[in-house]
Structure formats: structure tokens, C-alpha cells
Amino acid sequence: MKKFLIACMTILMVGTSCSPQKTNSTPEAAFSGKEGEVKLITLDPGHFHAALVQKSSYPQVAKDVYVYAPEGDDVQEHLKKIAAYNARTESPTEWNEIVYTGPDFLQKMLTEKKGNVMVTAGNNGKKTDYIKQTLAAGINVLADKPMAINSANFEVLKECFEIAREKGVLLYDIMTERHEITTILQRELSLLPTVYGTQLAGTPEDPAIVKESVHHFFKVVSGNPLKRPAWFFDVEQQGEGIVDVSTHLVDMIQWEAFPGVIIDYNKDIELLDANRWATPMSLAEFKEVTGEDKYPDFLQKDVKGETLNVYANGDIIYKIKGIHAKVLVKWNYTYPEGGGDTHFSVMKGSKSNLVIRQDKEQNYTPELFIETTGVTDNAAYETELQKEIETLAGKYPGVGIAKIKDGVWQIQIPAKYRVGHEAHFGQVTENFLQYLKDGKLPEWEVPNMITKYYITTKALEIAKNKK
After folding, report:
1. What is the pLDDT of residues 23-64, one digit of tens each?
2. Distance CA 17, CA 248 (A)
3. Which residues, 6+ apart, have CB-to-CB distance to 166 below 8 Å?
4. In which element (H, E) is residue 453 found?
5. I need a surface site. Which of 51, 122, 161, 252 has the fewest CB within 10 A?
6. What residue ranges do the domains of the chain occupy?
7. How far apart are CA 80 and CA 95, in angstroms?
8. Which helix H or strand E contains 256, and what residues bound it?
9. For the domain bounded by 2-174, which CATH number is listed?
10. Cα–Cα distance, 285 to 291 (Å, whole number)
């Protein structure tokens, strides 16, 4: 058991909301927004996303942060990141990390209850149980995705939302991609009949909405090479790609195509197909990204010869309220020079396709394009498009369009909106702080979170049952 102090940080954020739903919040659980009333607990941080929630500071959040974790590299890597935020020259944070390490860290946290919001980002095989026990203790939870990595977890997660309702606390997952500017503008344009027309239904072979994401095991975070724990490569602890990154892709489809709409997985979702495959990793690559000289015993099941096969890739084809959709996630070892994680997305309307590309041609920066499909008079369409963009610029000043060729335009996006993935964690956190003050989430958030995790966990079940 150890106790020590170190300095740390927090993040900045913004958000969207729709007609909210009240919880059974009590006066004791209520938040007013006053300075320092939110007291963070960080539980068993094993993923760098836990630190990103503290990359900026928030007035409502107290500087003391209580960390409960087992001894080891995971918690030390987390504390190093927080210390770096505190020590930076520009906008340093002032976090004071009060750390308890010991085998009884979970029970210690539940007994002491020194905070009122628990942040969890780490071993996903343990996360659902962590969430359940924390909610039962009457503590709010801000959880990194995924909150469930298999069908058994999904059933527990449904219980978690019921516990949260009964206790008058909030459970919310960190959906950063809702704050990416090209995704925001793709959503805005899809709601304009003069630009998009009506949403096409598509087919299983030609889905009407497609989201693809490419990620990398070896990357740089906050200016430093990322060291990943060995368990990250065990799909029983981290979860397969089809239940991990896919949560973002499924969430974006719901959030963009059906804004403010409750989606019931029992009647609105039909899973059609799902697949999974592995990314091979050499022992040298494994050592570079983890610092480990050999594969631990829990990974031997996935090792053939000297190669570790990580089932980090997958796709899902499904229908959501009659619309055919596809999500696909891939993991490579590292990215090409000048590159990074990439995103591709297309929404297909009767008048145009709205396409996000982030390849070499776009300098690995996400860019949004409008490509007409069902338009016979491109000149007339362009006139209407220009009017709509001018209106949109009233909400997002500086946004414009550049014509690439007949029927194709690129959205011009000012640099001020491109804040980067790490800053999105602050934006999500700001939303959550407002929800705490409101004592409620938007009415569609909980049912749509449940639907999202049904899709990913059921898809994994389908993919694994294939011969």
C-alpha cells in the first residue's frame, strides 16, 4: 500500500443536448456548478484516455484527484502524463494526485468514497464490473469506451443503467468523435434537404452509411511515444476491434442519421453480417510498444511461432430503422510518415453523398466533400448549396466551400475548429459536467448507449460463431 502526491490536469469541452430525462437525483447528489464541487476518482488507469480527461482544468473540478490502482506500470504511466501536464509551459494544470496502490484498491475506493465522479479507462475486461460497483456506491461514472466487450458484459451494462437510475447518478461514455468538425458538418449537411435530399436505404452490398476507422498500435500521444500495457493486446482484456473502436462508429451513425431520436435495439436494429480478423505483430514490435522482452503467458493462445495475432479488426453490416449501415475498424502496427489514425465516412442521400476522407491526398487531415448523385442541374444545385453554406457559416463562422469539379465541392474549414483528438476529451467532459448540474442526460442517450453496445457485442458473437 502506498500513498504519494503528484500534480495533474483536466480538459475543456463543449456539447450537444436534446430534451433531457430526469434521474432520481437527491439533494445530496445534486450539483450546482460551483467551483471545486466535482471530485474526481481515477480507478485503475491502464489506458492513456484516463489522463486525457485531465489535460485541461475545469473550475467545477477540484484539484485533488484520488487515484486507486494496483501497483505497476499502468498507474505509473498515468501519473507521468499528469505530471507532464502540470509541468508544461503553456497552460499548465495544477492537479494533485492522491494515490492509493494495493490489492484492495477497489474496495478501498468504494469504502472511502472520497470523490463523486469516477473516471475509468483501462482493462476493458474488468471495466463493466468496476462501473457496476461504483454506481451501486452512489458515485457517478464517466467511462472510456467500450463499457462492454461481450454479450455477458452487455447484460451487466443494462443492469448498470438501472442502478444509475435508482441511485440518481449518471453513467456516460466518452464519445469524442461527436466533436470532430468534419463529423459535425456532415451531420449538419445531412439535415438539409436542398443539399442532401432524403436518406437512401441502401443494400447489404451497398450500404447507405459507411464508417471506417484505421488505428495504430505504435503512436505518439501528447508529444511522446505511447507505451501500451501487454494486456492491451489480449482481446479478452482489451476487447476485439469489433467491440472497441467500433463503438465510436456505431455511435456516429446513430448521432448523425437520427439526431435526438431514441433507438430501440429490440425493434430498430437488424444485424446482417459481422467478420473479424487478426493483425500480426512481431516480437520486436511487441517489445518496442510495450517494453516487454517476451510475450506473457496470457497471450500465448494467440502466438504462432514468433508472431502475435491480435484480433483487432472487424466489420459489421446492419440495418438501423430500415437504413443499411456498415462499420469497419482496422489496426496496423504504425502509420506512414506524416500520417496517423484515419477516418473514412460516407452518407448517401438522394441528391448527394457526404464523404469524409483522411488519406495522403488530404495530408492525413479529415476533409469533407459534397458529391452530387441525383442532381440533373448542377448550376441550380450550386446556387442553393451556396445559400445553405452561408447560413451554416452563421453557426460556424468561416466555413465555406471550394468547387473541385462539376458536382463536387470541398468544405473549407478554418483551423480554429481543428482542435485535435486529445482536446475532444475535454469537450466531452464539459458536456458531462453540465449534465451533472442538470441532474440528467438527454432522454435518448441511455437507450442509444444500450443499443450501441448491443450492436457491437452481438456482432462479435456472430463473427466468432462463423466457421
Report:
1. 443 434 589 999 999 999 999 999 999 999 999 999 999 999
2. 18
3. 24
4. helix 445-464
5. 161
6. 2-174
7. 12
8. helix 246-257
9. 3.40.50.720
10. 10
